[in-house]
Specification:
The protein has about 280 residues and is α+β, with helices and mostly antiparallel strands. It has two domains: about 1-140, Hotdog Thioesterase (Thiol Ester Dehydrase, Chain A); about 145-280, Hotdog Thioesterase (Thiol Ester Dehydrase, Chain A), CATH 3.10.129.10. It has six helices and 13 strands. The strands form two sheets. Strands 1, 4, 5, 6, 7, 8, 9, 10, 11, 12 and 13 form an eleven-stranded antiparallel beta sheet that branches. The protein has a two-stranded antiparallel ribbon with strand order 2-3. InterPro entries: HotDog_dom_sf. This is Acyl-[acyl-carrier-protein] thioesterase. Pfam families: 4HBT_2 (PF13279).
Length: about 280
């Protein structure tokens, strides 16, 4: 089901010459809403009943190429698993030539007003079953490589989750989490003496590329959110970071993120030694 069709990238969506990494999360959220309307179980209905609609439980994504300013993107969504209360969707983002930009797999549940996962209504479950395709996708980071846990740095940044980081249900926006992780990384780089403008040249480093994130509980309005980052592996192609997002000492989101380097056309390239130096002990 095509839910975003030939959307042209605009200035506010960019980070330099390429789209901001958080937009991949944003497109997933927009696409979920469009899909929900098509299957007759829309966000508006659930929010009106006091529920938290289509809350993510787990998300795995791989970005093959970052689209550049002025390009168009489309997103197709397929239901791949339908449970009593959970729904797995696969999102394919393509460019104007139909070439793949990213693939994401996300599991959703709707949180009832009193807490716990809300069962899917029988008619909606049947509609979803009718839309379901038999498909498996292999996306996200690979297995954790063996490494010395003391070799690489850890760093942390805290944020006050207030407007404009929250939505009407008083939870942090889905696409804000990679922004928080980006700021934590940029703060670490700045403290290490890295000046991005001086080392980037024709490359766009430290862009989110492969990730597996598990969502355990929401981040609420007026929370103080700590983003803990533990670098696990570094090579010419990727910087692997374990993330833990905490409020009040409790992990709300955990996962593994691999950052890559891309050229100005959005194609993957390698990090330079200067770019990797802050992570090497």
């Amino acid at each position: 089901m095509r839910v975003i069709d030939s959307h042209q990238l605009r200035f506010g969506e960019m980070a330099g010459p390429l789209v901001h990494g958080a937009k991949f999360f944003d497109w997933q959220l927009i696409s979920t809403q469009a899909f929900a309307r098509e299957v007759g179980y829309p966000f508006e209905r659930l929010v009106g009943d006091g529920a938290i609609p289509y809350a993510p439980v787990g998300v795995d994504t791989t970005v093959y190429r970052y689209p550049a300013f002025g390009e168009t993107v489309s997103v197709d969504v397929e239901a791949t698993r339908v449970g009593d209360s959970s729904l797995e969707l696969v999102y394919e983002t393509t460019d104007g030539d139909g070439e793949p930009l990213s693939t994401a797999r996300m599991t959703h549940v709707t949180i009832a007003p009193e807490g716990g996962a809300l069962s899917l209504p029988a008619d909606v479950k049947q509609t979803l079953a009718d839309h379901r395709v038999d498909r498996t996708v292999d996306v996200g980071p690979g297995d954790d490589p063996e490494s010395d846990p003391n070799r690489y740095p850890t760093f942390e940044e805290s944020f006050s989750v207030n407007a404009p980081h929250i939505e009407s249900s008083e939870l942090a926006y889905f696409e804000e989490y990679p922004r928080f992780a980006d700021v934590a990384l940029e703060s670490f780089l700045a403290a290490s003496g890295v000046r991005l403008a001086e080392i980037s040249g024709d490359r766009q480093p430290y862009r989110i590329r492969d990730w597996h994130w598990e969502f355990k509980s929401p981040v609420r309005f007026n929370s103080e959110l700590a983003v803990e980052s533990d670098v696990r592996a570094v090579d010419d192609d990727a910087i692997r970071v374990e993330h833990a997002f905490r409020t009040e000492g409790t992990v709300r989101i955990s996962g593994v993120t691999e950052y890559g380097c891309f050229d100005r056309a959005g194609n993957p390239t390698t990090f330079t030694p200067e770019m990797l130096a802050p992570f090497e002990g």
